[in-house]
Amino acid sequence: MHYKGYEATIEFDEHANVFNGEVVNLRDVITFQGSSAAQLKQAFAESVKDYLAFCAERGEEPEKPFSGQFVVQAEPDLHKAISSAAQRAGVSLNKWVVTTLERSVR
Hints:
Layout: E1 2-3, E2 6-13, E3 18-23, E4 31-34, H1 37-58, H2 76-89, H3 93-105
Antiparallel strand pairs: 1-2, 2-3, 3-4
Helix pairs in contact: 2-3
């Protein structure tokens, strides 16, 4: 599920007969639950709004969903190998890494 740039995963608790959700694309913890899809969507939106309001009350910036940038450190031989692979593919090193990561998670 997605709401205002926040992404959540959902699990079903068959013993309690309820869906539990958690925002996954930030370090702060935002959870919610509902017994139907409509309740789950509403609870998700309300939890994000509550989180944003809580941060505003405290005068803190809410954590934003991931920026899309991260630093990767690799051994020099691996760095050389992926740089060569990117050159052979005719793309930038960044594009090659992003494409490879996309294939891995899909």
